[in-house]
Amino acid sequence: MRLIKIILLFLTAFVISLHGITAQAAIHIIAAENVYGDIAQQIGGRYVSISSVLNSPSQDPHLFSMKPSIAKQAAEADIIIYNGADYDPWVKSLLAIQGQKRRSVINVAQLMGIRSGSNPHLWYLPETMPRFAEQLTSQLQQLDPAHQDYFGSRLKQFKQNYQIILDKIATLKNRFQHTPVIATESIFNYMADSIGLVMHGKAFQISIMNDVPPSISQIKQFESDLRQHTVRVLIYNKQVMNPMTNRMIAIASEEKIPVVGVSEMIPPDTTFVEWMINQLNELEKALANKHEPHS
Q: What's the pTM?
């Protein structure tokens, strides 16, 4: 009986030891934005641990400042993922930290051929996430060859789920192509182009993107598009509110032009696909009912 207890204790300790080894063997990934962290989790599954630095739709990503805890995570990271195109310049300090010898870096803008100074909101470009997922899968398979089939299967599942977004875009394009809209920022422009919408206010948006106050002529043109009902919908960034944005929303509400808020980060307990579909559904509702006032 005593021998049996000793054997059981030994087996229990062995299992716990194996669990510890498995946990330590997880591939550590830091994603500068949770839009990429979510995809990384979907591809890596139980063989990765993810830390997303920007992870709340309530925070202004342009006001972010580095914390020591993030630097510590970077030193332990196997893969660092960031947007690039000047969206997250603070990542340079992360990359300068000495970390794992095998650390890989994915610059999504570079992957997509998007240069500095271009619209950096790459997650609204429909081609971005499938290509990013493929690149990440390749790196995970190199780091953990024993589970390359697992990662490949997860990639296939992700692409199947992502097809829902592509189908929705095709539906919206079929219904609303050439419809004029306007936006306070360029955040949604890639998606608007994919749907075939005609985007007004681009000069205004460029000023905002470059942290330059819009000119008087740009403001007047923006307001005119709303008051003259040249556009059907106003799109704004829910994470970056300021007096100018509030003014344009107020004018749109006064003119009974639908207003759609979009964000830069995924809300809690929501996947990338769910988040994007929810926003596209809101846009569809607004485009279909041009007289619905903003509430």
A: 0.88
For residues 54 and 34, the answer to whether their CB atoms sit within 8 Å is yes
CB 245, CB 236: distance < 8 Å: yes
Please give the single-letter amino acid code of residue 234.
L
* DSSP helix/strand/coil, 234: strand
In a domain? residue 237:
yes
Ramachandran category for residue 167: left, alpha or beta (phi over 0 → left; psi -120 to 50 → alpha): alpha
Both tokens of 86, joined, read 């000047």
Domain count within the chain: 2
**How far is 80 from 32, CA to CA, in rounded Å?**
8
Residues in the chain: 295
Range of the domain at 56: 25-164
User: Is 42 a domain residue?
Assistant: yes
List per-block mean pLDDT (blocks of 10 residues) for the chain, which spans 295 residues.
48 44 71 97 98 87 78 90 95 82 90 95 98 98 97 98 98 98 97 98 92 95 98 95 94 97 96 98 92 43
